[in-house]
Amino acid sequence: MLASIATDYLLDACPGCGGHLLVTDNEPPIVVQQVDIVAVPLEIHEHRSHPGWCPHCGKTRYAPLPLSIERGGLAGPRLTTVIAYLKGVCHASFSTIRKFVRDVIGLTISRGQLAKIIAKVSRALEQPYEELLRDLPDQDRLNVDETGHKQNGQEQTNHCRNLAKRFEKHEESYFRFITTPGVEPTNNLAEQVIRFVVIDRLITQGTRSEKGNRWCERIWTVIATCTQQGRSVFEYLEAAVTAWFHGEEAPSLLPRVSSSQGQRAGWSIGGRKVREDREATGRMPPGASVARVRRRPAPRG
Predict the structure, then answer these.
(1) Residue 131, in any domain of the structure
(2) Rounded CA gap, 145 and 162, in Å?
């Protein structure tokens, strides 16, 4: 890391015999870098919309605020990203985030305001999420896996599928690993990709609304996809939030593939069945992951 401050320490005399020391460049110095957190640089920018009286209309008119201020409100794009990162990546509750923002950042904010901020980030991620979802059917192979998720205590995915019916319907997919090079007989890779979803479920105990489900789908997709592509989740979230604040399109989550890699690879998390004949598993180059939270089908009588 490039140091912002450097301090040099020199000996006045030999610590062994007390003799005079000669300056030498034959040996490099011993370097210890210590990293610390400076005071949180909160910037409070006050935006003032001044009024004007119109005698013709008989009304007071206010100067319009920029779109980024109207959409962002109290929290700017970077603070919004920090809150979203704590909620989505760190599995923090609103109470924990509220304490962190209050004690570490120095800002008192309500749980309701935090929920509104998360809803804004969810809307910011809608467009790249839908773009990735539309791209899935064009993939050669998809790795599909399911994990449970609860909304108000109700299971949202169905683990217990009828194996006989599934085998009858997807017989070719089950044995595609025999005839197609590169396709593996297990979905271990998909299970590894969604491990953080299992952790989130154990910590948060699920969601309480459809809005919560949409948030989970989108933030899980961002986390898994950025991880596969070697991109920073925080940097992507900040770019997406900033773009949404300004009414612009968020950066795409579609992987950039060179000509030597061929077609993009697609992944599916949460039991999203894109095409019935594409449930074969396979090891593919880093691509994208899509999370989908679905209602659990009602049991048949």
Answers:
(1) yes
(2) 16
